[in-house]
Design goal:
The structure holds two protein chains of two kinds. By secondary structure, chain A is of the alpha+beta class. Chain A is built from three helices and five strands; from the N terminus they run ααβββββα. Chain B has 16 helices and eight strands. In chain B, a hairpin with a 3-residue loop joins strand 2 and strand 3. Chain B is elongated. Classes of the chains: A alpha+beta, B mainly alpha. At the A-B interface, helix 1, helix 2, strand 1, strand 2 and strand 5 of A face strand 1, helix 1, helix 2, strand 3 and strand 6 of B.
Chain lengths: 84, 388
């Protein structure tokens, strides 16, 4: 599909996708957010550790702090996809 | 955040370099890629990108809500949102996220426990106060203190061990400072705000607010300007309130006692001189006294107990029927009448629930005769009830 749209060869597109993903991963790994124009932002968010309570047993446990990969869509994409 | 974000152009450039294509081509590819992603999302609701993760359209169900200003119920319509779930490998990578995580955690730590910082700040303050007389140092000190205060309000718990340190620190460095000017020795002892402007020293002024800010908590040595006043005001207020309450209690007590005495005095011996007692009663409670001579027929007794009410009174804590009887009839021996009048509410006269309203009937002269057979019977019944 992308090959058709861009006029690039299928092989090249595949290669591009792979490298693209690699770049994204590397940047995200180092805590960098990646802006995808016309789409949104992929970013790493640090979640604080929090306490949870088991609803039935009432046990308390602590969820350790962690990093999470979060995608934030651009506003117009968000709106567009809202109504489908 | 700006330097912590890979912009579109940077991504494009990196991609072009890595894949060995021109920037133009890379751009073309990326745009097509994104467009394709959105299209696919629209069609299939889910797009998997190998080596990255899954974009998915998630439906949010419509839910009910309430308009905050008008209180109306409204429905928030359902919509779709994009959820991104990273691939397991990517997730782990991010989780390990070496640099970022450490930084983030460190920053979080700073926010979470101010104790470390507080300690550092306390040291700083000590140093600053030690070098008093230097303006910049003072200004910073105040800033730190403001921070301190904010922290303190936010985290009251962990600071407590810190408290004793802070009030001490401002005191000790201040003393060496005092000989600098003749008027200063006064200020630490009675630090009232009007005295400060008199001191010719400029650095003194920035110090004062600082000092007043630091020992906010109740500490043994309070050299702050506001604190003693505040305490004085509060103490006097408390004193006044306590005095007022004492007066009120005393007043009520005296009144009851006095009324009791008056009745006793008027009755002399309540058993014999009933008519007089009733007269006093009637004047006191504004009950028509025309009944006094007439109601000596024993048949009238029962209805009169129930019909003619002086008033009703609520049982309070520590109160009892005998007490009420003494209050209203002048003698506690008449309490069985109260029991009789409130039989429907009282089962055991010695155990009455607090707040029970007690009807206090008017007593006739005949009823005041404690030697009468009726009264004896009534009293026996009442006493029997206490045994229940």
């Amino acid at each position: 599909m992308i090959a058709n749209a861009t006029g690039l060869s299928k092989k090249k597109v595949e290669q591009l996708i792979a490298t693209n993903n690699a770049i994204l991963r590397e940047n995200l790994m180092s805590g960098k957010a990646v802006q995808l124009q016309g789409l949104g932002t992929l970013e790493v968010k640090a979640k604080r550790e929090r306490e949870i309570v088991h609803p039935r047993t009432g046990e308390r446990a602590v969820v350790p702090s962690k990093n999470q990969l979060v995608f934030r869509p651009v506003a117009h994409i968000k709106d567009e996809l809202k109504k489908i | 955040m700006a330097e912590n974000k890979l912009s579109w152009t940077e991504l494009r450039r990196a991609l072009a370099n890595r894949a060995g294509v021109s920037e133009k081509e890379a751009n073309l590819f990326l745009q097509a890629f994104n467009a394709q992603l959105i299209e696919a999302l629209k069609q299939d609701k889910q797009v998997k990108i190998n080596g990255l993760g899954i974009f998915r359209l998630q439906a949010v169900a419509p839910r009910k809500s309430v308009n905050v200003s008008s209180g109306e119920e409204i429905t928030i319509e359902g919509y779709n949102k994009i959820a991104f779930m990273p691939e397991a490998g990517v997730k782990e990578l991010v989780e390990k996220g070496t640099v970022a995580r450490n930084e983030n955690v460190a920053s979080l730590r700073e926010e979470i426990d101010p104790l470390v910082k507080l300690g550092a700040q306390a040291d700083e303050i000590v140093g600053i106060l030690g070098e008093l007389g230097q303006k910049p140092g003072d200004v910073q000190g105040t800033k730190d203190d403001v921070k301190d205060d904010v922290r303190r309000t936010m985290y009251e718990g962990p600071e407590i061990p810190e408290e004793p340190e802070i009030p001490e620190t401002p005191e000790s460095p201040e003393n060496p400072e005092t000989p600098e000017s003749p008027e200063n020795p006064e200020s630490p002892e009675e630090p009232e705000s009007p005295e400060n402007p008199e001191t010719p020293e400029e650095p003194e002024e920035p110090v004062k607010p600082e000092v007043s800010e630091t020992p906010e908590m109740p500490t043994p040595q309070e050299s702050t300007p506001e604190k003693p006043k505040y305490h004085f005001m509060r103490d006097t207020l408390i004193c006044v309130v306590v005095l007022l309450m004492l007066l009120l209690v005393g007043y009520f007590f005296l009144r009851h006692e006095l009324s009791g005495w008056i009745n006793d005095f008027a009755n002399g011996q309540p058993k014999t001189e009933n008519v007089q007692g009733d007269n006093v009663q009637s004047t006191m409670y504004e009950v028509p006294s025309d009944k006094v001579p007439g109601d000596k027929v024993p048949g009238d007794e029962a209805p009169s107990v129930e019909e003619e009410l002086l008033l009703t009174e609520e049982i309070t804590e520590g109160s009892r029927l005998a007490w009420i009887a003494k209050k209203h009839y002048g003698n506690k021996v008449y309490w069985p009448y109260l029991y009789e009048a409130n039989k429907d509410r009282i089962t055991n006269p010695s155990k009455i629930a607090i707040g029970t309203p007690i009807r206090v009937p008017k007593l006739t002269a005949a009823q005041r005769d404690t030697t009468s057979a009726e009264f004896q019977a009534l009293r026996e019944r009442a006493y029997a009830a206490t045994e229940e």
